Backbone:
């Protein structure tokens, strides 16, 4: 179903079914740290191989969203400092919460998302140089054919001294990123890249590509700082790397 229904329609329909599912799955075993609600189980999710117990019934967050929330909350001043924030393809689990923060000047952007403020191409952004203190661009670059140009634009609009989080689906056992422009069939893309609208599988060289653009990059395994109990309770992916970049 995820490979056949357009993403904008999925986003709109999820607003309708979320409250019903969240009520049905109330419990005490698992916690979504984004809203603090507890459940007897999370939902399965995945375009190819489904992962069990990963999709929060209340916020619709996945492992990466909950990990990022914990990192921003515990390790940064995101929720307290006065900052200009640019958020690409805003996730539902973050959107309203970030909009309600009084300390940030918050702009969302995407080419297709129905919940973004500014419709824009990441390879040709309508923002001035050195505009944003913080840029969130998570699970976007794997969709972009010219990811080098996209990274250059992200670097251009970030303020000197600013930082960003650019999460991507990544195969950490793969040294070199795999991409093949000749693969255009949606079913073949889903089988090879894991999703019908992905154009590559990033390897560990992703971090060095960001460095080649000019970013300083930290490869943060934030789950290594958490207890096994918390990893299980929050349904996180142990060993997932958060790419934090600085200009």
Residues:
């Amino acid at each position: 179903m995820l490979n056949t229904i357009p993403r904008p329609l999925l986003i709109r329909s999820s607003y309708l079914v979320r409250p019903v599912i969240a009520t049905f799955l109330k419990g005490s075993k698992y916690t979504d740290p984004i809203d603090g609600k507890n459940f007897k189980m999370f939902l399965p999710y995945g375009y190819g191989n489904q992962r069990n117990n990963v999709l929060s019934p209340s916020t619709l967050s996945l492992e990466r969203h909950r990990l990022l929330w914990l990192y921003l909350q515990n390790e940064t001043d995101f929720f307290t400092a006065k900052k200009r924030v640019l958020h690409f393809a805003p996730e539902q689990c973050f959107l309203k919460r970030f909009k309600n923060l009084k300390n940030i000047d918050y702009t969302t952007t995407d080419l297709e998302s129905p919940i973004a403020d500014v419709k824009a191409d990441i390879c040709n952004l309508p923002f001035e140089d050195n505009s944003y203190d913080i840029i969130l661009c998570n699970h976007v670059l794997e969709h972009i054919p010219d990811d080098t140009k996209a990274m250059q634009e992200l670097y251009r609009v970030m303020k000197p001294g600013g930082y960003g989080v650019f999460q991507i689906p990544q195969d950490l056992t793969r040294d070199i990123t795999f991409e093949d422009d000749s693969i255009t069939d949606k079913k073949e893309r889903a089988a090879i890249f894991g999703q019908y609208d992905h154009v590559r599988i990033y390897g560990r060289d992703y971090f060095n590509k960001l460095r080649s653009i000019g970013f300083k990059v930290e490869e943060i395994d934030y789950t290594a700082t958490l207890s096994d109990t918390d990893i299980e309770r929050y349904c996180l992916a142990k060993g997932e790397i958060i790419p934090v970049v600085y200009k």
User: Anything to note?
Assistant: The first helix runs from residue 7 to 24. Helices lie at 7-24, 63-75, 92-99, 147-157, 186-193, 206-213, 228-233. Residues 1-5 have pLDDT under 50 and may be disordered. The first strand starts at residue 26 and ends at 31.
